């Protein structure tokens, strides 16, 4: 049992040492970072050409590595004065060894030891930041497909929701609204709405949800709720309130347009009558 535990510990220690050596080789080497990682994980090896420091800034990397290696070879020592009182002993005796160890430790605390570790730490930190940053979504312009049916397709109110997703949900919403209106019109007097009006109504509803919800989950949940509500009303032959409200707004707009036309016509007739007089 003890032998098995020792063997597992030995294996784990060897694996940790190997991983550490690989990391050191990764940081101190000038080979493409992606090639090294692909080889380590058994993936297809492809050079990144410009996405790592080894490929894009090779000369700068070589200079940093040279500076790092030279700093590792630099050591500082302190000389003891001859009036310590134990120069007759080798190394100053026990007390001399103690003072020497303290001097060595003070050199490290003053920055001698950090000279070697700081460049390595900076190099590792930079590479990790680069790899971590590669997973972040890039701030690119939203691509708008030709004849996009949604309103304000370039709007980025919810960054996770793409234009394609908006079009997909709009298409479903539009289809459910058309079914609801068609079913209602079988036994009831249909509002004065055209297919284009239903399309405009669906586009306005989708845009309102897109702008008022805070994330993709709330956006999806709201639209799924609309789908369910429309289907439930369609099954019993009732008209959804959004379509009814849109029809009412259209009637008001038509009435206003008719009044404007009448006013314009009356004004024209009055001007003609005045001229004739």
From TrEMBL:
ATP-binding listed as a keyword: yes
Protein name, entry field: DNA helicase
UniProt-listed Gene3D superfamilies: Winged helix-like DNA-binding domain superfamily/Winged helix DNA-binding domain
Gene Ontology terms, MF aspect: helicase activity
Domain ATP-dependent DNA helicase RecQ zinc-binding: 6-55
Alphabetical keyword list: ATP-binding, Helicase, Hydrolase, Nucleotide-binding
InterPro entries xref list: RecQ_Zn-bd, WH-like_DNA-bd_sf
Residue numbers spanned by region Disordered: 103-145
Organism encoding this protein: Ornithodoros moubata (Soft tick)
């Amino acid at each position: 049992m003890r032998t098995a535990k020792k063997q597992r510990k030995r294996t784990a220690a060897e694996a940790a040492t190997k991983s550490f050596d690989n990391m050191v080789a990764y940081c101190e080497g000038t080979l493409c970072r992606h090639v090294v990682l692909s080889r380590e994980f058994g993936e297809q090896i492809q050079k990144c050409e410009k996405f790592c420091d080894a490929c894009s800034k090779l000369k700068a990397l070589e200079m940093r590595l040279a500076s790092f290696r030279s700093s590792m070879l630099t050591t500082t020592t302190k000389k003891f004065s001859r009036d310590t009182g134990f120069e007759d002993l080798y190394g100053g005796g026990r007390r001399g060894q103690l003072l020497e160890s303290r001097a060595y430790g003070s050199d490290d605390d003053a920055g001698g030891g950090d000279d070697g570790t700081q460049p390595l730490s900076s190099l590792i930190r930079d590479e990790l930041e680069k790899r971590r940053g590669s997973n972040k979504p890039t701030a690119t312009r939203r691509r708008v497909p030709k004849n996009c049916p949604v309103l304000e397709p370039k709007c980025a109110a919810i960054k996770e929701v793409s234009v394609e997703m908006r079009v997909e949900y709009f298409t479903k919403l539009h289809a459910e609204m058309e079914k609801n209106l068609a079913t209602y019109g079988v036994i009831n007097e249909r509002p004065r709405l055209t297919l284009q009006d239903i399309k405009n109504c669906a586009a306005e509803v989708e845009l309102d949800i897109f702008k008022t919800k805070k994330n993709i989950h709330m956006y999806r949940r709201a639209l799924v709720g609309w789908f369910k509500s429309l289907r439930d009303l369609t099954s019993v032959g009732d008209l959804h309130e959004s379509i009814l409200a849109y029809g009412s707004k259209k009637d008001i707009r038509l009435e206003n347009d008719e009044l404007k036309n009448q006013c314009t016509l009356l004004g024209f007739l009055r001007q003609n009558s005045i001229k004739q007089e």
